[in-house]
Q: What sequence folds into this?
């Protein structure tokens, strides 16, 4: 079955869908092959011809988790259970799992291989499915993800550098802020950031389409946080994880305790701004634009 959205085809793969935009992928590859050393990555619009020279292919490959001697490729998206998934992958590869959860995210500490040491053509072969590598990513309802990011980075685990960037952007654009910053103010700022230049927005708030590298990777499996345990079990089975790792699929770590109920504090105008800024996630990832039923959104 083929889904039509904004003139682009999306292929239905059962409970989980693959969202590769064929024409955009071809445009990226043409640009990359013509100028092998050029940068590319984030786009202010979705057309291939407007892909900006922001993130180098080497950096994209560095951030990925390329394990099992090429058996699988995981593309992390912050606030989508990446702490848990990375910890499990480290365990599966018999690599140390640091007790400091922040180190789990830092390649300087965990040493998990990416694809950046491969040639450009070898990386593109992996990304585009010309190898046997199983490529997977996890996505989340945009409402729930942004609420989780707010409670985590501006609440439970306050990140001073993130707060400074939000205040700086707000000051430059005359957006009033309270102390502490309210959720509605936070949504206003990050939505304006995303519209102005999606490359400048923090990775925890950046639309998943860009952070998940959907513009270049043709994923075999797109798991959803809404069905996380079952989807994670499937991934672990596909990559041949040991039973001990599979048994941990239902365990929770680094919970933020956020809920989508906080969206009740957001005005209609701010929500409209958010929907404009994150339109590509609702469209490409196929989430409804109405608010989801209130539920606990952790991880």
A:
């Amino acid at each position: 079955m083929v889904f039509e959205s904004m003139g682009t085809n999306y292929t239905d793969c059962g409970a989980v869908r693959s969202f590769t935009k064929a024409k955009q992928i071809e445009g990226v590859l043409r640009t990359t092959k013509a100028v092998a050393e050029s940068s590319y990555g984030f786009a202010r619009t979705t057309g291939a011809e407007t892909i900006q020279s922001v993130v180098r292919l080497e950096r994209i490959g560095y951030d990925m988790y390329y394990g099992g001697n090429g058996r699988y490729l995981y593309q992390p998206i912050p606030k989508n259970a990446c702490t848990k998934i990375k910890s499990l992958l480290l365990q599966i590869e018999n690599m140390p799992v640091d007790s400091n959860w922040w180190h789990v995210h830092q390649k300087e500490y965990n040493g998990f291989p990416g694809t950046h040491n491969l040639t450009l053509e070898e990386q593109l072969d992996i990304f585009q499915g010309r190898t046997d590598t199983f490529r997977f990513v996890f996505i989340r309802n945009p409402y729930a993800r942004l609420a989780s990011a707010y409670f985590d980075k501006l609440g439970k685990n306050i990140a001073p550098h993130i707060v400074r960037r939000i205040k700086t952007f707000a000051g430059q654009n005359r957006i009033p802020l309270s102390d502490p910053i309210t959720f509605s103010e936070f949504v206003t700022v990050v939505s304006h950031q995303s519209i102005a230049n999606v490359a400048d927005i923090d990775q925890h708030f950046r639309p998943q389409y860009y952070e998940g590298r959907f513009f270049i990777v043709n994923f075999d499996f797109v798991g959803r946080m809404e069905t996380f345990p079952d989807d994670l079990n499937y991934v672990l089975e596909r990559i041949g994880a040991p039973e001990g790792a599979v048994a941990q699929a239902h365990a929770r770590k680094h919970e933020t305790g956020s809920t989508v109920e906080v969206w009740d504090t957001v005005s209609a105008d701010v929500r409209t701004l958010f929907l404009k800024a994150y339109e590509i996630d609702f469209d490409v990832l196929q989430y409804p634009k109405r608010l989801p039923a209130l539920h606990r959104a952790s991880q």
